[in-house]
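Researcher: We plan to redesign the surface later, but first we want a full-length starting point. Tokens attached.
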């Protein structure tokens, strides 16, 4: 007999954003329904507002709709998002869910609610006591892993260490082997500076950090090339030579992803003891409550979570 479909938990995200809307729309799409059994974690009252009253909802987050309005991020909306996320995490750790898909949250909302993690990735890492983790964005065959995440540009160079770059490359390698079934992944690594530092003329992080990190991992038999100038590495002809690209900072990796597949990309957290995916967009408060949000990335996040859960069962 075929194995039962994986159970996918979906946290509602910030109720003042488009999370509930894209979840409701996604779960009406046959592609998401065929991927697995889904449980929405959040507030039934919120989903009634977006036409999702008949969805399979764990109504476990109390929301005062008078104090939460579409497009207006607040401490109340951030608190509701954090509560749903915490419940989803606990249910996954308890084995009641095979994977977790997280709706978009506002970092401002979380901060106003007293949650000081810079994002859901860090929230989940803290909640699972995971020290080595990374973000992967996947849009079709283009996969990008970030060495640093939500940092001001002024802090990126100082934050890059040999250990941090090694961790990103190692997690990229392991994830492609274990999660995607690619036995010998080809890894391209971005330089930090223009023209890969031009021999030190435009910066020395390539020489002092990135090259030593790559050198140590080459000794372990990994297939790595770099550091390569990002403008060259992300060109269509060259990026096809790699199964994954490791970028040094947030926009260096996410701009190419969103240029090539905005609304089609999926965020996957590497290194956690659970499977977690999310759509590639934020709360989009400018269109919240208008019925205009596109559910495509949420559909893909659900399908990716189910795919990874099925693979984990099979290995």
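Model: Full-length starting sequence:
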């Amino acid at each position: 007999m075929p194995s039962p479909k994986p159970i996918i938990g979906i946290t509602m995200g910030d109720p003042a954003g488009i999370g509930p809307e894209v979840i409701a729309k996604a779960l009406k799409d046959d592609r998401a329904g065929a991927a697995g059994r889904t449980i929405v974690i959040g507030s039934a009252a919120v989903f009634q507002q977006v036409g999702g009253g008949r969805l399979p909802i764990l109504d476990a987050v109390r929301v005062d709709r008078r104090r939460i309005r579409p497009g207006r991020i607040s401490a109340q909306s951030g608190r509701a998002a954090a509560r749903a996320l915490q419940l989803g995490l606990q249910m996954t750790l308890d084995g009641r869910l095979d994977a977790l898909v997280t709706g978009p949250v506002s970092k401002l909302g979380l901060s106003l609610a007293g949650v000081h993690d810079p994002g859901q990735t860090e929230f989940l890492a803290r909640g699972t006591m995971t020290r080595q983790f990374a973000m992967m964005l996947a849009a079709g065959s283009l996969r990008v892993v970030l060495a640093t995440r939500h940092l001001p540009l002024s802090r990126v160079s100082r934050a890059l260490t040999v250990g941090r770059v090694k961790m990103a490359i190692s997690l990229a390698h392991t994830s492609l082997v274990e999660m995607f079934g690619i036995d010998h992944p080809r890894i391209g690594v971005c330089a930090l500076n223009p023209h890969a530092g031009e021999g030190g003329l435009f910066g020395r992080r390539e020489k002092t950090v990135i090259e030593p990190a790559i050198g140590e991992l080459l000794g372990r038999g990994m297939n790595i090339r770099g550091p390569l100038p990002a403008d060259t590495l992300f060109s269509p002809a060259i990026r096809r030579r790699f199964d994954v690209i490791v970028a040094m900072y947030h926009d260096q990796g996410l701009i190419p992803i969103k240029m090539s597949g905005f609304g089609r990309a999926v965020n996957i957290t590497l290194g956690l003891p659970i499977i977690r995916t999310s759509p590639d967009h934020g709360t989009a408060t400018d269109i919240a409550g208008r019925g205009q949000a596109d559910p495509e990335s949420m559909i893909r996040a659900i399908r990716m979570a189910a795919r990874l859960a099925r693979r984990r069962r099979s290995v």
